[in-house]
Amino acid sequence: MRAPHEAFTDVRPATECLDLLVPPVAGAVRGWSGPVPVDEVMYVDTDPAVADTATLVETHGPWLLESSANCVIVAGKRGGVVTLAACVVPSATRVDVNGVARRELDARKASFAARETAIGATGMEFGGITPLGLPADWPLLVDAAVADIPYVLLGSGSRRGKLIVPGKALPGLPGARVLEGLGG
């Protein structure tokens, strides 16, 4: 598997790019206490027009798909209580919202959170949501396949830019639970 670093000409430690990150992501990088050194969390400045996975892969190379992951916000509901959670799955898959995610959230019903809810609750841009900088009390559901990727290409909190994070760092993020089959 090729590292996503190879697809970009300007890859820098995220600590050098705090001014390019949305506040919750910059805060997560500043306060990093993950299982890998913070200098292994990298930032790549990308064109917002190629932020979506399909366009990014078309622009920078089809092999990027195997190291890319998406972070989506899910709303689980039970008895009038809504629980928001983030799900990180390989980009070539979709979150198993009504199976794995719903059961893990102990919800009667689960669905993708509305765009406005996802944006408002995370402080991030839709299409750039990342697991770094999410509310600490949220469940962070990580597909086991993503945790096994040596370097994962993720959103950076905005449509401009991406983060490259060692997959083994994701289980150490606040609220993280690694699950088999989350990406169906």
UniProtKB/TrEMBL annotation:
Q: What is this protein called?
A: YbaK/aminoacyl-tRNA synthetase-associated domain-containing protein
Q: Which domain of life is it from?
A: Bacteria
Pfam short name (any one): tRNA_edit
Task: Spell out the molecular function terms from Gene Ontology.
Answer: aminoacyl-tRNA deacylase activity
Ranges for domain YbaK/aminoacyl-tRNA synthetase-associated come to 49-169
